């Protein structure tokens, strides 16, 4: 079936198999390898993308469900440059193997839209849909805090 | 297989007439995981996500009506749920993760019918009623009659869960929800517990309890409730109730916990009500 949607700020049109998952469409067809399949069952958050600005699990979305929506992956988070949260993750050592990172920054960037000065507890709560096997989470929380401060400075 | 995304209930009924084999999908957070684990090809799916009529929350005449396809996040952000149904709000906030809540729906949690469903203990103590609709008729079923066993509900093939109706209880001045799991998020409940009490002049007028993950469906017990009713709430009465609760629940051993552990926790959770004394 033919679907049309907005992908990282560009209108796209593609013919998809009804049973195709959104994560596979984004990775295999559009070559956006930011969202990754960590578990395929919604329990790790590595596949997270924004659908109309809300972070969702692309492994549990069918490609057809993207029709008419605005889809943002980690690749499209920043406008002309990377998003402050991506900068903070890199700067503060919140990235080791990097597998969880594209998903993490989607949730992090969304929470920064809603909370100007999030507490560490709030950050942990809002990011609880993402598993990381490398960092122990501490520097990830540091990075979100750091990004919040930068987003505020930019205003 | 095909996938349909109707924008209205009328469209939905037309599609279901032409495709009686289609399965209904709301958030897909349970359905797609289950279908894929079965290893077969996906069936034709009809998605409810674009039907606005199924997503509203309204209060009128002392009753709150919640659309079955309302996402769990939308309910957490809803002022009526926050102010009028705090015990439901507490339960939803512990379900899955923010990502799962952004997609999953209250109707899906009910129709999956798992005894570990996090919204269920609260819905049972709230006395929720379910409005079931087919193309031609509507019926109302109390939630305790709707779920028959693990994964089995009263829902007929030609029906959908349309909305959840909750009467606002007057006089409830103590409520508690707690979920015990192996993690703080992304955890299946090992035991869950919801309680609502109406206390007046220091005497418990009415107590309502419900436990999850300790039986084939949500467990309720009038005997346990009666132990605390008609008296002042105290650690003594709660301990007596806890001992009876351990006999009222019928958990199993599984990979997450033993039967024995679950019985003890089910009783112990009652003692949390003592922390408000």
Describe it for me?
The complex is a heterodimer of chains A (155) and B (277). By secondary structure, chain A is an alpha+beta fold. Chain A has five helices and five strands; from the N terminus they run ββαβββαααα. Chain A has helices spanning 22-29, 84-91, 101-114, 120-126, 138-154; strands spanning 2-7, 10-15, 48-51, 54-57, 70-72. The N and C termini of chain A lie far apart (43 Å). Chain B is of the alpha+beta class. Chain B contains twelve helices and 13 strands. In chain B, the strands form four sheets. In chain B, strands 4-5-10-6-7 form a five-stranded antiparallel beta sheet. A three-stranded parallel beta sheet of chain B has the order 1-3-2, covered by helices on one side. In chain B, α10 packs antiparallel against α11 (235-248) and α11 runs antiparallel to α12 (259-271). In chain B, 46% of the residues are buried. Chain A binds chain B through residues 1, 18-19, 40-43, 45, 48, 54-57, 60-62, 64-65, 67, 107, 125-131, and chain B through 1-3, 5, 27-29, 32-33, 36, 41-42, 44-45, 47, 49, 73, 96-100, 102-103, 184-186.
Task: Map the helices and strands.
The complex is a heterodimer of chains A (155) and B (277).
Chain A lengths: L1 E6 L2 E6 L6 H8 L18 E4 L2 E4 L12 E3 L11 H8 L9 H14 L5 H7 L11 H17 L1
Parallel strand pairs in A: 1-5
Antiparallel strand pairs in A: 1-2, 3-4, 3-5
Helix pairs in contact in A: 2-3, 2-5, 3-5
Chain B lengths: L2 E2 L4 H10 L4 E3 L5 H7 L7 E3 L9 E4 L2 E5 L4 H5 L2 H6 L1 H8 L4 H6 L2 H7 L7 H6 L3 E5 L4 E5 H4 E3 L2 E2 L6 E8 L6 E7 L10 E10 L2 E10 L9 H7 L6 H14 L10 H13 L6
Parallel strand pairs in B: 1-3, 2-3
Antiparallel strand pairs in B: 4-5, 5-10, 6-7, 6-10, 8-9, 11-12, 12-13
Helix pairs in contact in B: 10-11, 11-12
């Amino acid at each position: 079936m033919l679907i049309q949607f907005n992908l990282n700020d560009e209108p796209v049109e593609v013919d998809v198999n009804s049973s195709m998952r959104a994560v596979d469409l984004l990775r295999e067809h559009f070559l956006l390898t930011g969202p990754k399949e960590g578990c395929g069952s919604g329990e790790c958050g590595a596949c997270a993308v924004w659908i109309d600005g809300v972070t969702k699990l692309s492994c549990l979305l069918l490609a057809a469900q993207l029709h008419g929506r605005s889809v943002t992956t980690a690749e499209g988070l920043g406008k002309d440059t990377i998003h402050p949260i991506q900068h903070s993750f890199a700067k503060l050592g919140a990235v080791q193997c990097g597998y969880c990172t594209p998903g993490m920054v989607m949730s992090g960037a969304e929470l920064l839209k809603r909370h100007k000065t999030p507490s560490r507890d709030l950050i942990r709560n809002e990011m609880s849909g993402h598993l990381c096997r490398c960092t122990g989470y501490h520097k990830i929380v540091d990075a979100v805090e750091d990004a919040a401060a930068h987003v505020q400075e930019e205003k | 297989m095909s996938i349909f995304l109707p924008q209205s209930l009328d469209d939905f009924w037309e599609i279901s007439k032409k495709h009686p084999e289609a399965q209904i999908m709301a958030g897909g957070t349970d359905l797609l995981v289950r279908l894929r684990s079965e290893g077969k090809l996906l069936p034709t799916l009809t998605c409810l996500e674009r039907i606005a009529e199924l997503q509203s929350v309204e209060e009128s005449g002392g009753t709150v009506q919640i659309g079955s396809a309302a996402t769990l996040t939308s309910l957490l952000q809803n002022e009526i749920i926050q102010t009028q149904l705090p015990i439901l709000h507490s339960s939803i906030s512990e379900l899955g993760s923010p990502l799962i809540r952004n997609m999953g729906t209250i109707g899906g949690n009910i129709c999956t019918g798992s005894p570990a469903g996090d919204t269920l203990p609260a819905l049972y103590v709230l006395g929720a009623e379910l409005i079931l609709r087919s193309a031609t008729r509507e019926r109302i079923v109390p939630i305790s009659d709707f779920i028959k066993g693990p994964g089995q509900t009263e829902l007929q093939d030609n029906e959908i869960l349309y909305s959840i109706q909750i009467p606002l209880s007057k006089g409830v001045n103590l409520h508690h929800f707690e979920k015990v799991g192996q993690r703080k998020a992304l955890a299946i409940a090992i035991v869950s517990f919801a309680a609502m009490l109406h206390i007046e002049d220091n005497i418990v007028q009415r107590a309502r309890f419900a436990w999850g993950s300790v039986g084939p469906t949500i467990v309720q017990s009038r005997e346990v409730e009666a132990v605390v009713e008609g008296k002042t709430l105290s650690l003594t009465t709660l301990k007596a109730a806890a001992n009876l609760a351990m006999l009222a629940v019928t958990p199993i051993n599984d990979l997450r916990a033993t039967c024995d552990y679950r019985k003890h926790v089910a009783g112990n959770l009652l003692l949390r009500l003592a922390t408000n004394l």
